[in-house]
Each structure stands twice: as C-alpha cells, then as structure tokens.
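Suppose a colleague, Dr. K., hands you the sequence of a protein chain of 281 amino acids and asks what its three-dimensional shape might be. Before reaching for any lab equipment, you can write down a predicted structure in token form. Begin with the sequence itself:
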Amino acid sequence: MKSRELDAPSPVWAEPTAVAPERDRVAGFLRQCLALAEMELRKLLHDPTELATRAVQPALWLAVFGQVFTRVRAIPTGQLRYLDFMAPGVLAQSVLFIAIFYGIAVIWERDLGIVHKLLVSPASRVALVLGKALSAGVRGLPQACTVYLLAWLLGVKINWQPGALAGVAVAVMLGAAAFATLSLIVACIVKTRERFMGIGQVLTMPLFFASNAIYPLAIMPGWLKVAARINPLTYEVDAMRALMVAGGQSLYGIGLDFLVLAATTLALTALASRLYANLAR
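The predicted structure, expressed as tokens, is then:
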C-alpha cells in the first residue's frame, strides 16, 4: 500500500514550472526601466522652469507662422484651416526638438561617472535604454498640454474625445521615445558635447522639413515625398492630425502610423543597447 502511494504521480500544483521565474524576470526588467525613468524625471521636478521655456517655440510657430499663413492661404490643406492643419505638426516638432537633444544629457552623465555606475549595476542595457526612452516620452506630455492650450486659445478646433486625447498621448510618447533613442545612438558614437550639438542640429531640420508637419505631402517634389515616407515624424504627425483636430484625417491609417512608430522605437532601442557601453570607453 505504501509503495503504491510513493509511486503515485504528484499533484499538478506541485509540479515545478518555468512560469514563475519568467514572470519574475519580466517584473524585474520592468522595475529596472521604471527606476531609471523615475531618476530621469526627478531632474525635471528639480528644474520646473524648463517647462516654461519649452512653451516659447510652439507659441511662436502657432501665433506667428500659423496665423500669417492662415491669412495668406498659400498652402492647400483641404477642408482644414492652415492653423488647424499645422497644430499637430507643431506638437510633433516640439517633441522632436526636445527628444533629439536628449543625448547631450547622457554625455554629461558619462563625464560625471554616472554611466559607469549604471553599466556595473544589475540592470540590463536594454532596460537602461528603455528607461531613458520612457522618461523622454513622459517629458513630452507637458509639451502636449502646452500646445493644446495654445491651439485652443488661437481657435483651433480640438477633438476633446477621451479616446482621441489618449491616442495623441501615446503618439507623443512613442515619437519622443524614438527620437530620444536616436539621440542616444548619436551620443554613443560621437561622445563629445560639441560634436553632438552639431549633429543634433543637422538632424533636426531635415527630419522636420522632410515631413508633413507644416505642409501636405501632395505639394512636395517627388524626391521629398520619398524622404517623407521613410521619416518616422511623418507618421507621428499623421496620427496626431487625425486624432487631435476635429475633422482631421489620417493619410496612411492610424494603425499603420502607430505600427511604424513602435517598430522604429524597438529597432533604435536594440541598436542603442548594443552601443550604450561605448560611452564608458
């Protein structure tokens, strides 16, 4: 009788599985990403004046450039007023300008020895890069609130539906994460603040003007249309224009816009994770 009991199979709940260790690894990875993102966001809390200075550029674009070209009516924008057409592009531009210079902070961290401490920590390099990308995405949300307020004051027909607001927030975070990760890659390659500033300025203008931020793709020459179609900023603006403005439409489809942004962020994250250790050399 005892031998039968010993030979009997153990209950299902007693069998060891790999589910719990895998869940623990995922939870640990997420904790690492969130911890680094929190560290980055604390810098913003210690310097709230940064939020005020960021509002200057979109205010000038909307109040000056947008108002003038709305009166001139030189750019065909279909059923949308030019100011309404331009508002999502100004938001995307603001996020781009913030994120593309994100890498200079990483160079400062290298000079202060912070990067060396992060590299010897238990956190994986992917978690280090994703944490910075997440913090860049969260930093873009106050900018979105600022542009929304300015656009509303200037009479832009905003789509206030909760789903549309959430979609714009996701587009802002994905766009900021993608361009911040690109900035991190540049920082890992050039390694000096002077070179980074020059390359950052070179990247910003082509990304902005080779997109549909301030004019539609239909009026672009053929070569510029090709450049715009491979520019992630184009898909960010396309999604924002369909979600942010009442009566706005997506040229490529919102699903494709988000897919391109997500794929770009993942690809750049993978590359930045491989290059991140170069900062310490």
